[in-house]
Amino acid sequence: MEGEIRNKAKNGSLYWVETTIIPFINDEGAVYQYMAIKTDITLVKRIEAERDRIEAERDERSAELEAVNKELESFSYSVSHDLRAPLRAIDGYALILEEDYENVIDAEGKRLLDTIRHNAHYMGNLIDDLLSFSQLGRKDLAKTLVNMTTLANATVVEIGRNKEHNATITINPLHNVMADKALIECVLVNLLSNAIKYSSKKEKPSIEVSSTVENNEVIFCVKDNGAGFEMEYADKLFGVFQRLHSVEEFEGTGVGLATAHRIINKHGGRIWAEGEVEKGASFYFSLQTENKKQ
Amino acid sequence: MEHDSVVDILLIEDSHSDAEMTLRALTKQNIATNLVHLKDGALALDFIFATGIYAERKIENQPKVILLDLKMPKVNGLQVLEKLKGDKRTCEIPVVILTSSKEHPDVKRCYELGVNSYIVKPVEVSNFIKAISELGIYWLALNHAPQ
Fold first, then answer.
1. A42-100 and B125-137 helices cross at what angle (nearest 10)?
2. How far apart are CA A157 and CA A294, in angstroms?
3. Looking at the domain B9-141, which fold is it?
4. What is the pLDDT of residue A79?
């Protein structure tokens, strides 16, 4: 026989005991003696109550979180819809002026129209980048074994297809990792596009991708010989809208590295950079090992 | 309004400027001659089903393609789509969704309802005009619709 009993101690305080009663039976089958084992389980009870409270709180929180996520989703939708529509109108009417009033508008007027349109396009990109950045937080990781050598090569081909460049890109054999392929591809696109962009003003732009294994993690490196940066600003590289160069110098919205940072964080890895002005930059990110080198 | 005239394109769009850009693109391709532009979903349903102020219209005279914006006041694009894909008399009319947002939670729903195409209007108007011209030519000239 077993049970839990709430008792009152002599000093009036309540305590819980778990009691097991064992009957001793004689040859005739009658009980002639009992043994009771009592264990004070007050602490266990207290811990259980605390656990129930925490669980209830957690359920409440996750319900709240879900509501916030839903709200955020409809907010993103509104932002993308409602901000893009007027931008398209600005760009559109500027285009109509350019096309239909070509003979009336002088060179300076055309330059001004061009600036209006350029800024409208830029803001369109900002909205798109910011939205994909905010979406990252909501997506779950779909980890598979990723052949990084193949992925990096494919990314280089894809970037070349979208934008002409004259950089020499070397992809060394890379370690495979368990990761969300689409997201890691996004990291590679960002790092490689940056390397191409910031080395584009060099006579012989050169980019190298490599990987090493250190203490159970694979460290990937994308190294270029481009404009580099001052190390004292290194921590600013990964903030949203943080840029170390003006848009006139190098185009960009300042969301790419923040996105890469968020993706690597989600994978439990680290991302960092080393650089020197006019001597190039190296961007590193680490992921858990998946041993074999391809 | 001529109720029985031929309609090639029915544009259902509440944004004045988007409608203007769409018209411009189609005019440039010389395919905007028989175009009707309606500014909300309620009016569009009246037009398609020949009810309300369009009661005199013949329902058989349907457009070759409907360009439908999703976010509109009163009756939205999704509701219009649901009504016309759910009705035997109108379910064969090709419908192209034109929306400002990639984020729309209803992309999947549109396809389930039987939309024929789903296009996100680009911010860059030259791309927008290109997209509209191409889809205009596709649905009016290339596509062979059921008679």
1. 80
2. 19
3. Rossmann fold (3.40.50)
4. 74
